[in-house]
Automatic annotation (TrEMBL):
Species for this entry: Araneus ventricosus (Orbweaver spider)
Annotated signal sequence range: none
CDD domains, sorted: RNase_HI_RT_Ty1
Domain called Reverse transcriptase Ty1/copia-type: residue spans: 12-238
Protein name: Retrovirus-related Pol polyprotein from transposon RE2
Top-level taxon of the source organism: Eukaryota
Coiled coil feature spans: none
GO biological process: DNA biosynthetic process
């Protein structure tokens, strides 16, 4: 805590001023304690951080726009598959120390003095913040604005099709808040980039990417694989008191889950309150979105009952956790790539939800043979046939394919040559395929008109 306060004073984070009028909001602050771990999951450092209580801010008074652009993790998988595994570029990771403190605030924000560190001379004064302290609603966005400005002055180009991606010659920067991954063709280019960044920010130089956002980057035979074995073990140990059974499948064959299995009495609802259903969902959803597409359908299914889960849903969720524990050593192979081509496989489960009969669609996109993007979700529109359900999946998958292709083509426009990028979209419903290619129109398909023209246009352009 003393070290954090010393850092605050050194960086001149605030100035003590008389308290403003009562109608002006003064936000609170608190200490947050964290345990830093290495890539093996072992504790290496205890850290205390002072954070503002941004939840008490008032929109229009002390904050406005809050969205912080960060890189989509699908692009991290895509860039590692292509540039690291296929083209054999080098990768390096750095972290900006106290990143938010580099960003200036556009609004006037007052904060109470930190607990345990009140000024003896001015105990009734408040802190007028200058940089964007952690915890404020706009801090993430202000930091991204600051680092974007610095990188552009250094000659980097920000991609229009992707948040958090900057390019310069044969160097690519991937930004996720204060974590920066540098991809470079040569070690010289990487070191020059590190030096440029160090001239503008206080950096923690980590070296080769080993752990990023809770994901392990494992290098074997000149290929990088992704794993969350440590995190899965941590989650399992956190909830093992609920005795999750070891399972060989994410969902047991023939299992049916519906709202009819939700609690219907106050006693049943109160009984379920002792189970951390939403917390487990959050942990497993994070795993599914990063390295485990094999549980994506299951986590989407169990997420539908978060507002009122029943015993049956909890039991199924525990089996899913047991499956993850049994397969915790599985790694995502993003190294099986021989060419830069995008191939998407899709499917739709027509009227599968017994509660509302809305269909479920899903897809997985490969670059070469490396899975880089996947999604499972209930469709937004009600469909009247398996053809319509499949066609809606075709439409959603087409958008994902086009986005990934646009990102790669924009990279090529900045002197990162990748050659021709082919796209394939594969469906197993022949009627939906014919519907996409031809001008079929009847009462069953008129309401899909806009999506139909979108897909037809892509086919006509041969993108």
């Amino acid at each position: 805590m003393d070290a954090e306060m010393h850092n605050m004073k050194t960086r001149k984070v605030w100035s003590l001023v008389p308290a403003p009028p009562k109608e002006v909001k003064v936000v609170g602050c608190r200490w947050v304690y964290n345990l830093k771990k290495n890539n093996e999951g072992k504790a290496v450092r205890y850290k205390a951080r002072l954070v503002a209580q941004g939840f008490s801010q008032r929109k229009g008074e002390n904050y406005d726009v809050t969205f912080p652009p960060v890189i989509n993790f699908s692009l991290i998988r895509l860039f590692f598959a292509i540039f690291v595994n296929l083209l054999q570029w080098l990768h390096w990771q750095v972290d900006v120390n106290c990143a938010y403190l580099y960003a200036k605030l556009d609004e006037t924000v007052y904060m109470r003095q930190p607990p345990g560190y009140k000024s003896k001379k001015y105990p009734d004064y408040v802190c007028k913040l200058d940089p964007a302290l952690y915890g404020l609603k706009q801090s993430g966005r202000q930091w991204f604005t600051e680092i974007s400005s610095v990188l552009e002055k250094l000659g980097f180009t920000k991609l229009k099709w992707a948040n958090g991606v900057f390019l310069k010659n044969k160097v690519i920067l991937l930004l996720y808040v204060d974590d920066i991954v540098i991809l470079g063709k040569t070690n010289k280019e990487i070191q020059m980039t590190v030096k440029l960044l160090a001239n503008n920010f206080d950096l923690k130089i980590i070296g080769k990417t080993r752990t990023l956002l809770g994901i392990q980057f494992i290098e074997e035979n000149n290929k990088v694989y992704l794993s969350q074995e440590h995190y899965i073990t941590e989650v399992y140990n956190r909830y093992k008191k609920f005795l999750p059974p070891i399972s060989s499948l994410p969902i047991s064959k023939g299992s049916v889950y519906s709202k009819l299995q939700c609690p219907t009495t106050d006693e049943e609802t109160k009984e379920m309150e002792r189970y951390p259903y939403r917390s487990v969902i959050g942990c497993l959803a994070f795993i599914a979105s990063r390295t485990r597409p094999d549980i994506n359908y299951a986590i989407n299914l169990f997420s539908q009952f978060q507002s009122n889960p029943g015993v049956v849903h909890w039991s199924g969720l525990m089996k899913l956790l047991g499956y993850l524990q049994a397969t915790r050593n599985y790694k995502l192979d993003i190294g099986n790539i021989a060419e830069i081509s995008l191939t998407a496989y899709l499917d739709a489960d027509f009227a599968s939800c017994t509660d509302d009969r809305i269909s479920v669609g899903g897809h997985v996109v490969f670059c070469g043979n490396a899975p880089v993007s996947w999604r499972t979700a209930k469709q937004k529109s009600m469909t009247l046939s398996s053809v319509e359900a499949e066609f809606l999946s075709i439409c959603e998958t087409s958008k994902e394919l086009m986005w990934l292709k646009n990102v790669l083509e924009e990279c090529q426009s900045t002197n990162v040559l990748l050659g021709d990028i082919s796209c394939k979209l594969l469906s197993d419903n022949m009627a939906a395929i014919q519907f996409s290619k031809s001008s079929i129109e009847n009462n069953l398909t008129k309401h899909t008109d806009v999506k139909f023209h979108f897909v037809r246009n892509l086919l006509n352009l041969k993108v």
